[in-house]
Amino acid sequence: MNTLILGTAIRLLVPVFQLFSLYILFRGHNHPGGGFIGGLIGSIGYIFYAMAFGPKSVVDMFFMRLYVEDRADTRSRSQQLLQTIKKNTWQRKKTLEQLKKGEKKGIHLEPMLLIATGLLLAAGSGLAGLLLQQPYMTALWTDVYLPILGKPGTPILFDLGVYLMVMGVVLKITFIMSEE
Amino acid sequence: MEIVLCFVIGILFSVGLYFILHRHFFKLILGLMILGLATNLFIFVIGRLTRGGSPIIGEEQEVALEPFADPVPQALLLTAIVIGFGIQAFAIVLIKRVYQTFGTTDLDDLDSTDQIHSPKPPAP
Amino acid sequence: MSHLLLVLPLLIPLFGAILCLFFWYRPGAQKILSLLSQLGLVSAAVWLLLQVNSEEILTTQIGNWPAPFGITLVADLFGSLMVLSSSLVGLALLVYSLRGLDAPRQRFGYYPLLLMLQLGIGGACLTGDLFNLFVWFEVLLICCFVLISLGGTRAQLEGSIKYVTINILASSFLLMGIGVVYGILGTLNMAELAQLVRAPDTNTSLIPMAGMFFLVALGIKAAVFPLFFWLPASYHTPPIAISAFIGGLLTKVGVYALVRVFTLIFAIDLDRTLPLIMLISGLTMLIGVLGAAAQTDFRKILSFHIISQIGYMIMGLSLFTPLALAGTIFFIIHNILVKTNLFLISGVVAQRHKSFALPFLGGAYLLQPVLALLFVLSAFSLAGIPPFSGFWGKFMLAKGGFEAGQWLLVGTSLGVSLLTVFSMTKIWNEVFWKNKPQEEGAPSQARELPEESPAERRTRRLMYVPVLFLSGLIVCMGLYADPLISLSQRAAEQLLNSDVYINAVMYPPK
């Protein structure tokens, strides 16, 4: 689909979807909302983007293809890290062109990695209870009150894991189905 | 309200079963989806309907005000919908692959795994 | 302690699978990770069984919500025996598939799927909540869907479309049954359901109707008589490493769930349900073994025998006496090991002869005498010839049947055993005993198989390891059957005496 209206609108709407999905994610503490629905809302932006510009552009646009500076080109590990960050942020446009031409190699951040990270967070959040001789998945809360987030605890880790996983799954399904 | 929903469930079940018994792939998937919907609606209705009372405890209350809807069937429903979503996504990709491989949309053409005689092995 | 013990058999495969996902493009790392998690799973299962053996039923409440509200995990002897046998089979399968499965399939997520399947089986065996049972079944089913269609050959796609359709239908039935139970009794915790069903002031007139939903849904998953047609149409299509796992384990999980719900929840007003189950069990045995007699494919004969053996397991449930249920438990564990082993042997034969079709096989006895011996061990065990493990299971079932006065059912089961020997003899004659059939027009020297390359020989040697391991277990189970028999008798007593289960879940010791 190649429409100017959708293309222009979706560029502006993606950050809105992102913010709203994060709002829904953190709202899930004491109100309706949570990781699952937040992840779905967040992935809507990407799906529309894929509809407007094709699934490949989603990968290029949203940091799913990262460039890692070669260790041999740099003097130290910290410089390598700096170079990597630099080339992926403000020099990203140039790097992307180089990646496309095949001059440099990037690593692909698959939706599978998003799924795996989400699963690890969600399943790992339950382990805290086990360490304290409580049943698995026992909710543990800290006593600190943060201004927007509220009280942090292990359930927010679980929700964050679900959020990432849902996003990964939806993206993976979209990519598979749009492969013709 | 329950009576109307009961009839809707019945109609959905019969439509779903009719589509499943159809020979076309696409109708098979449609049938499975409709059957899933019917099942979800069935659980929702059998958990008793309460209108207008969401099971949310307000700021000043200790317990939710009567009458409130039973949240358990809703939770079951949500889980079942999510699971159904995943399975349907898989089934759609599967029939797409089957169509690409076999070049047919007729389920009756897929009968080789039921036959007794196995094919000859390829020559070494 | 029980908090950790009960979740370990679930967490080890779960984290193993997650780590495998991180190493998606590196099958070598996945192999090591999944081998480690399988070993960990076996040791966790042994530990769980030892603890359950010494201190009755263990429970834990996920998330620390008290019993009827939260999600309960329960381990009694039956459940932990199932977890142990599935983990043993999983370990053997993993070793087999290190070399026995082609590289493209290994790259496409075979190892994480195998671990997730283990997770689903473990969850289904340990859960104490009816809806969770459904969820775990979906977990293992969706892994199974992907495993069956993994690779996407014609036969696999065809088999998986049949498998997927019938299993989605079965899941809808299961969900409806759960909805009906919730509508009648207002809870889904199995222990509380058992308590409510046995309470004098509960209206239980609709409970058997809900039981029928479960009988149909779990009957499809366990492949009992009128609902088994999907099994022989799909189980033989994937590579042997996959079909051995699902053929050996999945239907038994269905039987496990049947036994669990019918001893715990639908255990009242059984005077109409039990004769129905009895009829189903007799017909399942008979039709399965007759279906096998007509087949000419190694794997398809074994698939039909799965159905026939399911009949024996249901037979113990239908008799509903302690001895018969103990027989069922023993038989399930024996069958998981033996059936997997037979599938693996067919895989080893096919690795050398490149075919599963009986008319094109032959002469395996000359080439692989050790394999022939291992096949005879497993085949005799499957048929129930003393002193192998199948004998003890069938002996307990038959004795239970005689004590209950069900002469016809016992007669059927013994006749079916004879027919099983017939099928196994057929495989023996065709695969191992007769000469390799000659190609038409080929010179007489072509009778010998082509010389195998060193890589193939190494592959075959590694494939022998799991077969030897499982055969050793089967022989041990037969010759030293006493501990397992007494364990299954105690497990059957636990099943029939539901007060222990209810107390362990509802009123846990502080």
Automatic annotation (TrEMBL), chain A:
<dbReference type="GO" id="GO:0005886">
    <property type="term" value="C:plasma membrane"/>
</dbReference>
<feature type="domain" description="Na+/H+ antiporter MnhB subunit-related protein">
    <location>
        <begin position="103"/>
        <end position="171"/>
    </location>
</feature>
<dbReference type="Pfam" id="PF04039">
    <property type="entry name" value="MnhB"/>
</dbReference>
<keyword id="KW-1003">Cell membrane</keyword>
<keyword id="KW-0812">Transmembrane</keyword>
<comment type="similarity">
    <text>Belongs to the CPA3 antiporters (TC 2.A.63) subunit B family.</text>
</comment>
<feature type="transmembrane region" description="Helical">
    <location>
        <begin position="35"/>
        <end position="55"/>
    </location>
</feature>
<dbReference type="InterPro" id="IPR007182">
    <property type="entry name" value="MnhB"/>
</dbReference>
<feature type="transmembrane region" description="Helical">
    <location>
        <begin position="156"/>
        <end position="177"/>
    </location>
</feature>
<feature type="transmembrane region" description="Helical">
    <location>
        <begin position="12"/>
        <end position="29"/>
    </location>
</feature>
<dbReference type="InterPro" id="IPR050622">
    <property type="entry name" value="CPA3_antiporter_subunitB"/>
</dbReference>
<feature type="domain" description="Na+/H+ antiporter MnhB subunit-related protein">
    <location>
        <begin position="5"/>
        <end position="58"/>
    </location>
</feature>
<keyword id="KW-1133">Transmembrane helix</keyword>
<keyword id="KW-0472">Membrane</keyword>
<feature type="transmembrane region" description="Helical">
    <location>
        <begin position="113"/>
        <end position="136"/>
    </location>
</feature>
UniProtKB/TrEMBL annotation, chain B:
<dbReference type="Pfam" id="PF00420">
    <property type="entry name" value="Oxidored_q2"/>
</dbReference>
<feature type="transmembrane region" description="Helical">
    <location>
        <begin position="28"/>
        <end position="46"/>
    </location>
</feature>
<dbReference type="InterPro" id="IPR039428">
    <property type="entry name" value="NUOK/Mnh_C1-like"/>
</dbReference>
<feature type="transmembrane region" description="Helical">
    <location>
        <begin position="75"/>
        <end position="95"/>
    </location>
</feature>
<feature type="transmembrane region" description="Helical">
    <location>
        <begin position="6"/>
        <end position="21"/>
    </location>
</feature>
<dbReference type="GO" id="GO:0005886">
    <property type="term" value="C:plasma membrane"/>
</dbReference>
<keyword id="KW-0812">Transmembrane</keyword>
<keyword id="KW-1003">Cell membrane</keyword>
<dbReference type="InterPro" id="IPR050601">
    <property type="entry name" value="CPA3_antiporter_subunitC"/>
</dbReference>
<comment type="similarity">
    <text>Belongs to the CPA3 antiporters (TC 2.A.63) subunit C family.</text>
</comment>
<keyword id="KW-0472">Membrane</keyword>
<protein>
    <submittedName>
        <fullName>Multiple resistance and pH homeostasis protein C</fullName>
    </submittedName>
</protein>
<keyword id="KW-1133">Transmembrane helix</keyword>
Automatic annotation (TrEMBL), chain C:
<keyword id="KW-1003">Cell membrane</keyword>
<dbReference type="Pfam" id="PF00361">
    <property type="entry name" value="Proton_antipo_M"/>
</dbReference>
<dbReference type="InterPro" id="IPR050586">
    <property type="entry name" value="CPA3_Na-H_Antiporter_D"/>
</dbReference>
<feature type="transmembrane region" description="Helical">
    <location>
        <begin position="32"/>
        <end position="50"/>
    </location>
</feature>
<feature type="transmembrane region" description="Helical">
    <location>
        <begin position="462"/>
        <end position="481"/>
    </location>
</feature>
<dbReference type="InterPro" id="IPR003918">
    <property type="entry name" value="NADH_UbQ_OxRdtase"/>
</dbReference>
<keyword id="KW-1133">Transmembrane helix</keyword>
<feature type="transmembrane region" description="Helical">
    <location>
        <begin position="205"/>
        <end position="230"/>
    </location>
</feature>
<feature type="transmembrane region" description="Helical">
    <location>
        <begin position="301"/>
        <end position="323"/>
    </location>
</feature>
<feature type="transmembrane region" description="Helical">
    <location>
        <begin position="70"/>
        <end position="96"/>
    </location>
</feature>
<feature type="transmembrane region" description="Helical">
    <location>
        <begin position="329"/>
        <end position="350"/>
    </location>
</feature>
<keyword id="KW-0812">Transmembrane</keyword>
<feature type="transmembrane region" description="Helical">
    <location>
        <begin position="6"/>
        <end position="25"/>
    </location>
</feature>
<comment type="similarity">
    <text>Belongs to the CPA3 antiporters (TC 2.A.63) subunit D family.</text>
</comment>
<protein>
    <submittedName>
        <fullName>Multiple resistance and pH homeostasis protein D</fullName>
    </submittedName>
</protein>
